[in-house]
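Reopening this one. Same input as before:
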Amino acid sequence: MKQTLEQFLASRGAIALAMVIALVWGIWYMPLYDLDEGAFTEATREMMETGNYISIYLNGEPRNDKPILIYWLQAASAQVFGLNEFALRLPSVLCALAWVFVVYRFTARHLDVATAGVAALLLPLSLFVSLIGRAAVADALLNLLIALAMLEIFGYYRRPSRGALRRVFVWLGLGFLAKGPVAVVFPFLVSGLFYLSYGRWREWLRLVFDPAGLLIFAAIVLPWHIAVYLDSGWTFFEGFYLHHNVDRYRAPMEGHGGGLLYYVLMTPLIVMPFGGWLIAQLAQLKRVATDPLDRFMWLWFFCVMLVFSFSGTKLPHYMLYGVTGVLVLMARDRDRLRSPWLVLIPPLILFGLLGVLPQLFSLAAGQTERVYEKSLFNAAVAAFAGWGQAFALGMLALAVVVAFLKLAVWRRVALLGFLQALLVSTSVAPTVIDILQRGPKEAGLFARANNKDLVFYRSYQPSVSVYSRQVIRHRPARPGQWAYVRVDHVGEYLNTPSPYRKKVVFSHPPATLIAVDER
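Same output, byte for byte:
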C-alpha cells in the first residue's frame, strides 16, 4: 500500500485528479452565489442583452467594480454554451487550470520534474484556490496573470531574453484589464526590491521603462479605456480608480475590515491543509541570503501580506496573490519536514470542525434573534445532519488513519489535501451554496416561467436577475409585478399600508415572491 500511494502521488494522474476534484467538480449544478457571482454574471448577461461590450452595467446601473476582461470571457463562454452556471464559471476554471500548468512548467524548468508535480498538487488542493478557482468572478484570472508576470520576471532574471521581457508586459496589460492596478503594483514592487537587493537598480529601471514593453502595455490597456470614456465619460474612472481602489484601501468597504495581523492569522487557513507546512517553511527563510529563488518568492509573499495588512478593506482571498511562489518553495523542501504534528494537526482540526457542522450551526442559531440568520442556520442544521455529518465524520476518521501512515510527512498531508477537496467539493460547498442560493434561483426561474416583472424590496441578490433574465430595480411594485422579498422582511412588506392587494406566490427561504394586484 505504501508503494502504491507513493507511486500515485508521483504520477500525473494525481495532478489530474486534484484538478478535477478541487477545480472542476460541481461547476455545472451549484447555484450562482450572491453577491459576487451574481453581480459578475448579471453584468455579463446585461452586456449580452444590450450589445454594449464597452461599459459595464448591473441592474441597469453602472458597475464600476472591475475592468472589462472577465466579462468578455464570460460572455464568450455563454455565447458558446448558453447562459448557465457551467458557461459562466468556465473561464475561471480554465484560468485556474492554466495557473496550475504555469506553476508546473516553471518549477520543472527551474528545479525538477518531481518538485513540479508536488507544486502542481499543492496549488489546486489549497482551500481558497479551490474555492475561487471555480467561481464566476475575476480572481482566478487575476491570479493566473499575476503568477505569469511574476514567474516570467524571475525567469528573465535567470535567463534574460527579449521575448521574456515582452511577455511580462503582456501579462501586466491583461492583468490591468482584469482587475486594475493591483496586477501591476506587486510585480513592480517585488521586482524592484529584488533587483535592488543585488545592487542592480539601474538595470531594473531600464527594464521597467523598456519602450517596446510600454508600447505593448499601452496597446492592451488604452483601447478599452478610451472606448469606455467615449461611451460613458468619467463614470468608470471615478467609480473604479477612486472609489474601488483608493477608497477601498483607505477604509473598510461592505464591512470587510480587520486588524494588522489579519493576514498573519488567515494565511494558514487559505492554504489548508498545508497551513502547518507553510509555517514550517518559515524555517527556511535563512536561504534568502544565498538563493535568488528563495529571495524572490519570499519577497513576493511578504510584499502582498504587508501591502494588504495596511489596507482598510480586507478579504481572505487577497493573500492568494502572494502564495504561488511559497508553494513552489514548500514543494522543493518537502523532505525537510521533520515535525509531523505541526503539519498534520491543523488539517485534522479543520476536519473535526467540518464533522460537527450541524452542532455548530445549531449553536449559532441559538445565539441570534435575527430571522434571516436564524432561518439559514436552522436550514444548515437540517442539511448537514444525517448523511452529510456521517460523510464528514467518515472523512475525519480516514484523515486520522492517513495521519498515522508510515509515509513521508509531505505525502500524508498531500493525501489529506485530496480528502479535504473531496469533502469540500462534494458536500460542504454545494450544501452551503444550496442553502443560501436555492431559494433565489428557484424564485428567478419561477418568475421567468410566469413571465413576471420583478422588483427588489430591501434585498440585493443579483443572481435572481440572472435566473429571471431581467433587470430588477429597487422600487415599489406596480400592479401585475412581483416583489422579491427576503424572508425576514415578508411580514413588514405584507403589513405596509397599500392600495394594492398582496399575495405570497412563492416561498423558498430565504426567498419570497409577493404578487401585487389591484383590489
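So the earlier flakiness isn't reproducible anymore. For the record, Residues 43 and 58 are 5 Å apart (CA to CA).
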